[in-house]
Design goal:
The complex is a heterodimer of chains A (83) and B (530). Chain A has 83 residues and is mainly α. Chain A has one domain. Chain A contains 3 helices and no strands. By secondary structure, chain B is an alpha/beta fold. Chain B folds into 3 domains: 170 residues, ANL, N-terminal domain (Rossmann fold), CATH 3.40.50.12780; 187 residues, 3-Layer(aba) Sandwich (Rossmann fold), CATH 3.40.50.12780; 102 residues, 2-Layer Sandwich (GMP Synthetase, Chain A, domain 3). Helix content of chain B is 28%, strand content 25%. Chain B starts with 14 loop residues before the first strand and ends with a helix. The relative contact order of chain B is 0.09. The model of chain B has no long low-confidence stretch (mean pLDDT 92). The chains are: A mainly alpha (83), B alpha/beta (530). The interface between A and B is medium-sized, with 25 and 30 residues.
C-alpha cells in the first residue's frame, strides 16, 4: 500500500533524525518525544517541513503542541482527511 | 537572618501554584509543606542537611521545597527523566537519606532502588497507602500519605542560618561526574530581595516557569513569585516547545525563560504584533539573546519590559541585567547579540586578564569574575575544582571571587558584553554542558579515547545539538554510544548523531581538534549527496 505523502514525509524525517541508529517506524499513538524519535528542535523542523509541503499552517496560539507529538496527531493536522 | 519571605505569605487564600490542572492556594501549599516536614528526621537529612526531591512539575514537588525550607534544610532537585545511575550518584554526593517522591517520580524510584546500598526514607505523599502492595526491599522505609497524616505536627517555621544550604544544584562536570553547587539561604535571600526591590511583582501576577526544577533558572520564578504573593505557573513538558497557547490561556504576566523558547516561537510565526498583551515583564537568561529575537519578542509582548539576564549557577541564577530599549539597544549590540548589561549594584564584577590580574573598573576584556552576597562558596566535595574556580583577592583576603570561565568585554560605563568561553563548556537551550562529560560517556562506549563530543549542528541562533565524532568503522558503535549516553547522561546531553571517521584531526598540542571537526561536519552538510 502506498503511503500518503504526509505520512511518508514524517517517516522519512524521523529516519533522518539519526541515520546511524535506525529505529522501527512508530505506531500511530506513540509519543515521538518520549520514544526519543524527535527532539524539541526536530519537532520544530518537522512542523516547518510539513507546513511547507502541505500549505497547512498551524496556529500555536490555539493549538496545544501536545496534540502533535504522535503520528496520528500530525496526520490529523496536516492530512485532514486522515481518520 | 529572618524567616524567608517565601514562607510567610500575606494572603493565605491567594493562588500560589497553577499547574494547568490544579490550583493550590498559599494556605494549601504551606499546609502540604508542613505535612511533609513532619517526617524530616535530622538523622535522615544527613550532615549536609539536604532533602532529595524526585519530581519535577507536580504540586508535591513544590510542597517539598516549602517543607525543606520551613525545616531550615536545603533541597536537592532530581529529575525523574535522568538516568538512575546519575540520580544515585547525586544522592551519594549529597549524603542524604531522605527523598520526597511525588507521583511522577515513582517509576524512577523503582529503577533507582536496586542501585542504592544505603537505607533510605522515601516520602510518597501522592500514595494513599501502600498496603500489602509494598514491593520494596525491607532495608528502606516508605511513608505514604496516611503515615504523614498520623505523624505529629511539625514544629513552627524557624529562621535558617545565613550559611545553611537552601538548595543543591548539580551541573555538568568536566571530570565526567555532575558537580554540586551548594546555594545558601544567604545567597538566595540576597537574590530574591534584589528582585523584590528593583523589579517588584505582586498579587495578581502569574509567572511562567518553563524550566525544570533541576535547571537553576527555575529558582527565579519559584522564589520571587512566592516572596511576592504572585502565582507560579509551571509549564507542562510538551507545552514548553511552543507555549503560546499556555501563555494566552493562563494570561501570564511575567515570562522567564531561555531565549531558545522565543526563537522557536519566532520560527513558528507565533510572535505577531501584540499577540501576548498580558505579559508586562519578560526575562531571558541562560544563553546569548539574539537581537532579532529580542525585537520579535518585544513586538509580541508589546505591553511589557524585556530584560536580558546573565549569571552562572554559582552566583545564584543571575547577577547582571540589560533592559531592552528597542532601536537604541539594537544599535549597541555586538555581533547581533544583546549585551549582558550591568552587574546588580549589590554585587561585584571584575575582569581577569591572562596574567591573572583583576581589573575591577574601566573598559577591558578578560574572564569575568564575580563576588558578593549571591556568590557561593565552592563545589560540593570538590576542593580541587573549588580552588581552581574560587579565589580570594590578596589585597584584602576576605573577598571571595568566582571565576566564571566566560570571557567578557566591559565598556567605559560598565556595560558588559559576553564574548565566549575560555574552556569547552557550551550552552544548549540554556543547559550548561561540559563537553568532557559527554566525551567520557562516548569513550566508555568505544573503549578508546579517539572520540569526542562537538557542538554541532550550529544555526544562526547558536548551538543546536551535540554530535559524537569517533575514529573507527565498527557498525555497532553508534548504537552502543547512544545507549551508553542515555544510561549515563541527562537527555539534554545526549548526542543527536554519531559520525564515524577514519581518523580524528589533532591540533598542535596533540589534542583532538574540536573546531576542525565542527568545520568538517559543516562541510559534509554543505556537500550535496551524489
Amino acid at each position: 500500500m502506498t503511503l500518503h505523502p504526509v505520512h511518508a514525509t514524517i517517516l522519512e524525517f524521523l529516519a533522518g533524525q539519526n541515520p546511524s541508529r535506525p529505529q522501527p517506524p512508530p505506531e500511530l499513538d506513540d509519543n515521538l518525544l518520549e520514544r526519543h524519535q524527535l527532539t524539541s528542535l526536530g519537532f520544530l523542523e518537522l512542523i516547518q517541513l510539513l507546513e511547507e509541503q502541505t500549505g497547512v499552517v498551524i496556529d500555536f496560539t490555539t493549538t496545544d503542541p501536545a496534540s502533535l507529538v504522535t503520528l496520528r496527531g500530525l496526520l490529523a493536522a496536516f492530512q485532514p482527511t486522515h481518520s | 537572618m529572618a524567616i524567608p519571605s517565601w514562607l510567610t505569605p500575606s494572603d493565605p487564600q491567594a493562588p500560589a501554584l497553577w499547574t494547568g490542572e490544579q490550583q493550590w492556594s498559599y494556605d494549601r501549599l504551606m499546609a502540604e509543606g508542613e505535612l511533609l516536614s513532619r517526617v524530616f528526621d535530622p538523622e535522615d537529612v544527613g550532615p549536609r542537611n539536604v532533602v532529595g526531591i524526585l519530581g519535577n512539575h507536580q504540586p508535591h514537588a513544590y510542597a517539598a521545597i516549602i517543607a525543606a525550607h520551613r525545616a531550615g534544610v536545603g533541597y536537592l532537585p532530581m529529575n525523574p527523566v535522568n538516568p538512575p545511575q546519575r540520580l544515585a550518584d547525586m544522592l551519594h554526593q549529597a549524603n542524604t537519606r531522605l527523598v520526597v517522591v511525588p507521583e511522577e517520580g515513582i517509576a524512577a524510584l523503582m529503577q533507582l532502588l536496586p542501585l542504592l546500598d544505603t537505607p533510605m526514607t522515601w516520602v510518597c505523599p501522592d500514595v494513599a497507602g501502600w498496603g500489602a502492595s509494598l514491593p520494596f526491599s525491607s532495608q528502606h522505609r516508605f511513608l505514604d500519605r496516611a503515615d504523614l497524616e498520623r505523624a505529629p505536627s511539625a514544629p513552627p517555621v524557624r529562621a535558617p542560618s545565613e550559611d545553611a544550604l537552601a538548595y543543591l544544584m548539580f551541573t555538568s562536570g568536566s571530570t565526567g561526574r555532575p558537580k554540586g553547587v551548594p546555594v545558601t539561604f544567604g545567597n538566595l535571600t540576597a537574590y530574591v530581595d534584589y528582585w523584590r526591590h528593583h523589579h517588584p511583582i505582586g498579587p495578581g501576577d502569574r509567572v511562567a516557569q518553563p524550566a525544570d526544577l533541576t535547571f537553576d533558572l527555575c529558582i527565579h520564578p519559584i522564589f520571587v513569585t512566592w516572596a511576592s504573593g504572585a502565582t507560579l505557573c509551571p509549564i507542562p513538558g510538551v507545552n514548553r516547545m511552543a507555549p503560546a497557547k499556555f501563555i494566552l490561556d493562563t494570561r501570564l504576566t511575567v515570562w522567564v525563560s531561555v531565549p531558545s523558547v522565543a526563537v522557536c516561537l519566532e520560527k513558528l510565526r507565533v510572535l505577531r504584533e501584540g499577540v501576548f498583551p498580558s505579559i508586562r515583564l519578560s526575562l531571558f537568561c541562560g544563553e546569548p539573546l539574539p537581537v532579532r529575537t529580542a525585537e520579535a519578542w518585544s513586538r509580541a509582548a508589546c505591553n511589557g519590559r524585556l530584560i536580558n539576564l546573565y549569571g552562572p549557577t554559582e552566583a545564584t541564577v543571575s547577577i547582571s541585567e540589560y533592559e531592552w530599549r528597542g532601536r537604541e539597544s539594537a544599535a549597541e549590540a555586538r555581533d547581533g547579540i544583546v549585551p549582558i548589561g550591568w552587574i546588580f549594584p549589590t554585587q561585584r564584577a571584575a575582569l581577569r586578564d591572562d596574567d591573572g590580574l583583576l581589573q575591577q573598573d574601566g573598559p577591558g576584556t578578560g574572564e569575568l569574575c564575580l563576588a558578593g552576597s549571591q556568590v557561593t562558596q565552592g563545589y560540593l566535595n570538590h576542593p580541587e575544582k573549588s580552588a581552581h574556580h574560587y579565589f580570594t583577592t590578596p589585597a584584602t583576603g576576605v573577598t571571595l571571587w568566582y571565576r566564571t570561565g566566560d570571557r567578557a568585554q566591559r565598556r567605559e560605563d560598565g556595560c558588559l558584553f559576553f564574548i565566549g568561553r575560555v574552556d569547552n563548556q557550551i550552552k544548549l537551550h540554556g543547559h550548561r554542558i561540559e563537553l568532557q562529560e559527554v566525551d567520557g560517556a562516548i569513550r566508555r562506549a568505544c573503549g578508546h579515547d579517539l572520540a569526542v563530543a562537538v557542538p554541532w549542528p550550529r544555526g544562526e541562533e547558536g548551538i543546536l545539538g551535540i554530535a559524537a565524532c569517533v575514529a573507527g568503522t565498527d557498525p555497532a558503535l553508534p548504537e552502543r554510544i547512544l545507549t551508553t549516553c542515555r544510561a549515563l547522561l541527562p537527555p539534554y546531553m545526549w548526542p543527536s548523531r554519531v559520525e564515524m571517521l577514519p581518523a580524528l584531526p589533532m591540533n598542535a598540542n596533540g589534542k583532538i581538534d574540536r573546531a576542525a571537526l565542527v568545520n568538517h561536519l559543516d562541510s559534509l552538510q554543505r556537500t550535496p549527496e551524489p
